[in-house]
Specification:
alpha+beta; five-stranded antiparallel β-sheet; 12 helices; 10 strands
């Protein structure tokens, strides 16, 4: 609903309620004053009738009631006599026979109780209002009631006049309300339009827009509060922008690749390092599915597992190509606000160089151990030959025995290094064959070697 129609409705309802309430009070007061004048006039006429010498019971009879009949016709009155039981004895109104209609009206009840009764009502079959005055009359030890009534056509005329006045005033009030609503709307609509423009600018991201002042106190306070809110929002947005820029710079400068994939396997974000590791363009892959960006089944399975199972996971994968690459993946599930919902955060660390250096180290150790076996074997043969020539007695034999033990230790060390290199190769290839063994033999050999030192 537009402001103009709303204000028009409020003003119109208020004006009509006030107008009709005032007219009703005026009409009610006028009717009361008019009826009160008729009551007093009828009370005087009834008093004059009671003071006559002729008895009331016989005053309306055919032989002696000519005066009452003449007065009723001249003054347009209705004169009735009612007995103590409420039955009409005589009535000057044509068509009303003695005996009455069996209804005891309020003015008759009051007169029978000894008071002057009054009533205003509309008679059945007539649209005119009548006023009645009933006074008690004690005659022949019996209480009678003399009732005098007269029509009051002024009430109906006054009612019609006030209705006409009310309709005309209502139409005039509607016109004035329309003019007032239009003027008030124009007075209020301009600052409200500026207020809406400022809000739309803020919603569009322009936090520099400010609301102008207004002559209306409430609107001026609202504009002032809006401007303070806009200042605080602008300052907060600037802080968030700086924080976002700092996070974006840190995100882009990370050596590890960072990949964010939503529940539909679409890449929502990645940094420069991840784009370089996956050999894609950083700005061209956002919004595309991971299958389009990187065709690596092991990476797809790892990301799907994070999204489906949640939690944190870590895995090392090999990307086959012209040169095999080794990636260490760490993934976790996060809740991202907006339409993305659950997303998998993948940290990609390229460990290819480390793997190559480790391979070089293992090859070097294996080669050195293999090359040491030949001189160790030659030394062992020389010591055995010298021992067979010199014999087992004397100081020389003791030194030859010591040499033989140390040469054996060197051979065992070379064998151990070669076994360790072989175990590392088998671990990388997941081919380590585990089997039960006796630990006691290992411990005894170690103890024996220590004793021989």
């Amino acid at each position: 609903m537009r402001l103009r129609w709303w204000m028009f409705g409020v003003l119109l309802v208020t004006a009509w309620l006030s107008l009709w309430t005032g007219l009703w009070l005026i009409w009610r007061s006028s009717v009361v004053r008019l009826v009160e004048c008729h009551f007093r006039w009828l009370e005087k006429r009834a008093g004059l009738l009671v003071r006559r010498d002729v008895g009331v019971r016989n005053a309306l009879s055919a032989g002696s009631g000519g005066a009452f009949q003449e007065l009723a016709q001249i003054a347009d009155l209705r004169i009735s006599v009612i007995d103590s039981k409420g039955m009409t004895i005589a009535d000057t109104l044509p068509g009303h026979s003695p005996g009455g209609d069996g209804v005891i009206h309020p003015e008759i009840k009051a007169a029978l109780s000894g008071r002057t009764g009054r009533d205003l009502r509309t008679e059945p079959g007539s649209r005119e209002s009548w006023v009645y005055v009933a006074i008690p009359v004690d005659e022949d030890k019996e209480r009678l009631v003399l009732r005098v009534g007269a029509p009051v056509p002024e009430v109906a005329a006054l009612k019609v006049s006030f209705w006409r006045m009310g309709v005309i005033s209502s139409l005039a009030a509607a016109g004035l309300c329309a003019l007032a609503a239009g003027a008030a709307t124009r007075y209020v609509a301009k600052p409200l339009g500026a207020f809406r423009t400022v809000l739309e600018s803020m919603a569009a991201g322009d936090m520099s827009a400010r609301a102008v002042s207004s002559n209306i106190e409430e609107l001026r306070l609202a504009f002032r509060a809006l401007n303070r809110t806009a200042d605080r929002l602008a300052a907060r947005l600037e802080e968030l922008r700086l924080e976002s820029d700092g996070m974006r710079t840190l995100f882009s400068g990370m050596a590890e690749g960072v990949l964010l994939v939503d529940a539909e396997s679409r890449v929502t974000d990645l940094n420069r390092a991840a784009a370089a590791l996956l050999h894609v363009e950083e700005n061209a892959v956002r919004g595309r599915t991971l299958q389009e960006v990187a065709r690596y089944p092991e990476l797809h399975r790892f990301v799907s597992g994070i999204i489906e199972k949640g939690g944190e996971s870590e895995k090392e994968i090999i990307l086959l190509g012209e040169e095999d690459r080794f990636f260490q993946l760490r993934g976790s599930l996060i809740e991202k606000p907006g339409a993305h919902g659950r997303c998998a955060l993948i940290i990609i660390n390229d460990v290819t160089r480390l793997k190559r250096l480790e391979r070089v180290r293992r090859d070097f150790v294996a080669n050195v151990s293999h090359e040491l076996k030949t001189p160790i074997t030659a030394l062992r043969g020389c010591v055995e030959a010298l021992a067979s020539l010199i014999g087992t007695d004397g100081e020389t034999a003791r030194f030859l025995d010591m040499m033989a033990r140390n040469i054996g230790r060197l051979g065992s060390l070379a064998e151990d290094v070669m076994s360790l290199a072989r175990l590392e190769d088998e671990a990388d290839a997941a081919r380590i064959a585990l089997q039960p063994a006796c630990v006691r033999v290992v411990l005894e050999n170690a103890a024996r070697r220590i004793e021989n030192l």
